[in-house]
């Protein structure tokens, strides 16, 4: 054969493309307490925050991790909490603060919903959703934002885990 390279290239084009490696399965140990960088939060929410302060609890059946980011020079906080539920309870649920209203987000693959409450002096916006066995709560609380303006921004943050 005069052009073995052409034959090799032709055969390679007939073979299926390599299958992308699947993400490793989510486990309690794989949950990251502070899943966002300050730059990711600033890009999505428009709030300059300090690096997050992590907290976590472990039990034989699961894990509960969280992170608190504070707005630089302000009293607003951004918090994320991920709870491994070994039973895979499904829909994320949380006790709504007094006076808060809940709103399901139509068409959300993660079953996401809002908890909106607080007052003019301290607005509160919380996004709740479930992925697999992990319930995630993302909370923005403080004086540096207005809930209706912040809702589309919160949805720009990547979903975790």
Number of strands: 7
Per DSSP, what share of the residues sits in E-state strands of 2 or more residues?
A: 25-35%
Coarse shape: globular
The largest β sheet comes out as: 7 strands, antiparallel
The rounded Rg comes to 21 Å
Number of helices: 3
Spans of at least 5 consecutive residues with low confidence: 4-19, 92-96
Question: Explain this structure to me?
Answer:
The chain has helices at residues 4-14, 38-45, 147-154, and strands at 53-59, 62-70, 77-84, 101-104, 113-118, 123-131, 134-141. By secondary structure, it is α+β, with helices and mostly antiparallel strands. The chain has one domain (4-154). The protein has a seven-stranded antiparallel sheet with strand order 1-2-3-7-6-5-4, with helices on one face. The longest helix is centred in the N-terminal third of the chain and has 11 residues, at 4-14.
């Amino acid at each position: 054969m005069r052009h073995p390279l052409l034959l090799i290239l032709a055969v390679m084009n007939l073979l299926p493309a390599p299958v992308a490696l699947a993400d490793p399965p989510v486990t309690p140990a794989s949950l990251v307490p502070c899943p966002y960088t300050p730059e990711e939060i600033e890009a999505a929410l428009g709030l300059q925050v300090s690096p997050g302060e992590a907290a976590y609890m472990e039990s034989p059946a699961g894990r509960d991790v969280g992170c608190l980011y504070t707005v630089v020079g302000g009293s607003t906080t951004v918090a994320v909490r991920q709870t491994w539920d070994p039973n895979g309870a499904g829909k994320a649920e949380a006790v709504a603060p007094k006076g808060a209203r809940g709103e399901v987000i139509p068409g959300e693959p993660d079953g996401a919903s809002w908890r909106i409450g607080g007052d003019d002096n301290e607005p509160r916006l919380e996004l709740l959703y479930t992925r697999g066995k992990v319930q995630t709560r993302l909370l923005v609380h403080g004086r540096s934002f207005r809930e209706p303006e912040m809702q589309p921004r919160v949805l720009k943050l990547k979903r975790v885990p």
